[in-house]
Write a structure and sequence with these properties.
Length: about 400
């Protein structure tokens, strides 16, 4: 064997050992974070210490450089500053993997100062359609499947909502219906196998859910069947506000609810709250919602009622990173600071995207995939597969 071939083989062995080391260290980090998240309830009570402020962050969608700017601009998580991240860490952007690992590392380092909630994109279905699965497979190569499965298990442990200082409710999509327990139907001759749930819901039968029901919901189902208590996580992650009164099924998305100002008032009054901060709608979604304000500043106040306000917060500027048309939304991102003593007066901080972004390739076919999370393939979601 020649010297060049020996050196080449040795280089390959060193690279393989390094990749194995990276996977091992990745596993340690994700497992440590998942263990902490698993102990947290569906609804986390965030009670700031005297002098602590709270920073609330909306969707970031793998835009790592903007996340780093945001954290530096707001001030790093510390004993003086708590962060609540409101989901959608991955998909669409080119650095979902790095973004998620950064936030998990912060969670392990400061578990009582960093709170990570689940977004609708922290699911098997969305990550298979919008790029995160392919990103992991590309970056981890032969170890990709193993790494991706660990992320999915970590997603199962993410809490659904927080109550900050007893007066601010945060969740990715928003509010949720009360539990409707339906009898399980079973197929003839197939013992133990349930029929697919009927997602048709009579809007007159929908009632607003309670925080107790939220606490009891089963959050470990990544793409929940739409029945019984599993309706609640779907609502929390996928629902949207409306200017129309009442509660109704969200026909545009095919999952979750639409709720009006009267429901915001009822939810705030019933739970003695002053603010709802949710995320879930970027400029692409709001471009189709002519009844509501656009996302140019990174936030909107959608309902202003007697008891308080409903705010939509989006923290990914110049979104999405990859876009089929040359005309971009050029939106700002934003974060909110809640200060003592009452925490009920949000201070908005808008910011522009970090430019120039480093060159990157998309991990999904952004020219073919629908712009926003609408017209979902529910059959594919039920089976945990992509429609692509």
């Amino acid at each position: 064997m020649t010297g060049d071939r020996k050196r080449g083989l040795r280089a390959v062995m060193i690279l393989e050992q390094f990749e194995a080391y990276l996977v091992k260290e990745f596993a340690r980090l994700v497992l440590a974070a998942a263990a902490i998240l698993h102990r947290e309830p569906n609804l986390v009570r965030v009670d700031p210490r005297p002098g602590q402020s709270v920073v609330v962050v909306g969707d970031v969608h793998g835009q790592l450089h903007d996340v780093i700017f945001l954290i530096r601009d707001a001030g790093f998580p510390s004993e003086e500053r708590v962060f609540v991240f409101n989901g959608d860490y991955v998909d669409r952007g080119a650095w979902g993997l790095e973004t998620l690992l950064l936030l998990l590392a912060w969670k392990v380092l400061l578990p009582n100062c960093v709170f990570l909630l689940r977004g609708n994109h922290e699911s098997k279905y969305c990550t298979s359609v919008y790029g995160f699965e392919k990103e992991v497979m590309t970056k981890y190569k032969d170890q990709g499947s193993q790494v991706y499965r660990k992320f999915l298990r970590c997603f199962e442990d993410l809490p659904l909502a927080t109550i900050i200082a007893g007066c601010v409710y945060t969740a990715h999509g928003g509010i949720f219906r009360g539990t409707i327990v339906l009898p399980s139907k079973r197929s003839k001759g197939k013992k133990g196998r349930k029929n697919k749930a009927d997602v048709t819901v009579d809007s007159t039968s929908i009632r607003l859910g309670s925080l107790d029901e939220l606490m009891k919901a089963r959050r470990t189902v990544l793409d929940p069947p739409w029945e019984g208590q599993n309706l609640i996580p779907g609502d929390v992650l996928w629902s949207d506000p409306s200017l129309q009164m009442g509660l109704s099924p969200n026909q545009e998305r095919g999952i979750g609810l639409l709720w009006g100002p009267d429901i915001t008032q009822q939810f705030l009054r019933t739970n003695n709250l002053k603010l709802i901060i949710r995320s879930h709608e970027g400029p692409d979604a709001r471009d189709k919602r002519h009844d509501l304000l656009g996302m140019d500043k990174g936030y909107t106040i959608d309902h202003d009622v007697e008891c308080g306000k409903l705010i939509t917060l989006f923290s990914a500027p110049d979104y999405p990173q990859f876009q089929a048309s040359e005309e971009r939304y050029n939106n700002c991102g934003a974060y909110i600071v809640l200060n003592p003593p009452d925490f009920a007066t949000p201070v908005f901080h808008s910011f522009e995207a970090v430019k120039p972004r480093p060159p990157a390739h998309p991990f999904y076919d952004f020219e073919e995939v629908i712009d926003s999370d609408e017209e979902l393939n529910l059959d594919a979601m039920d089976s945990g597969t992509s429609s692509q």
